[in-house]
Design a protein that fits this description.
The chain is built from 7 helices and 4 strands, in the order βββαααααβαα. The relative contact order is 0.18. The protein has helices spanning about 35-40, 50-55, 60-65, 80-95, 100-105, 135-150, 160, and strands spanning about 1-5, 25, 30, 110-115. It is mainly alpha-helical. The chain starts with a strand and ends in an 11-residue tail after the last helix. It has a single domain, classed as YbiA-like (Tetracycline Repressor, domain 2). A hairpin with a 2-residue loop joins β2 (about 25) and β3 (about 30). About 40% of the residues lie in helices and about 10% in strands.
């Protein structure tokens, strides 16, 4: 069976980057994975002043809009690091929030698909031919958590599994 997720208020909505499950990375508490992800686009750029603005906005929709502003320049290595940035943030989210970690583990080996009708990179797209990178990341996180649990760790410690040093030399 395939589990499709997208909207926060729908089944498995906690898998969405817009879900209200904050993360602490690089010494800052981010309201959502989406806030963190969008801010990372501007690390080390002339638009780095946008990072605290993205951090402070009230909703993940606002963070996404700021991060997707085509008049801004993203970091030159963004295409090469965006999947790693997402992987680290998503892993941190599921290690921090044991309630949604349990939901993730309960999915067994089912295929997880972000059911975005418009995103063919992170989701499956309207015709279900997208790359589903977010679903793949979440399934990798599920496997990582399972492996750590099978090694005898009753509850995983986020700091023992990941490094949050994505942007050396910067506060974000």
């Amino acid at each position: 069976m395939t589990i499709y997720f997208y909207k926060v208020n729908e089944p498995y909505g906690c898998f969405s980057n817009f879900s209200p499950h904050g993360i602490e990375l690089q010494g800052m508490n981010w309201p959502t994975v989406e806030h963190y992800y969008q801010a990372q686009k501007f690390v080390g750029t002339a638009d780095a002043a946008l990072i605290p603005v993205i951090h402070a906005v009230q909703t993940p929709d606002q963070a996404a809009a700021l991060g997707r502003d085509r008049t801004r320049k993203v970091r030159p290595d963004w295409a090469g690091v965006k999947t790693q940035v997402m992987q680290i943030a998503v892993l941190k989210k599921f290690l921090t929030h044991t309630d949604i970690q349990a939901i993730l583990i309960s999915t067994g080996d089912q295929l997880l698909v972000e059911n975005s009708q418009t995103d063919y990179y992170w989701g499956c797209g309207r015709d279900k031919t997208g790359q589903n990178h977010l679903g793949k990341i979440i399934m990798n996180v599920r496997q990582e958590i399972r492996q750590q649990c099978s090694k005898g760790a009753a509850t995983l410690k986020p700091w023992s599994v990941i490094s949050d040093q994505i942007s050396p030399g910067g506060p974000y």
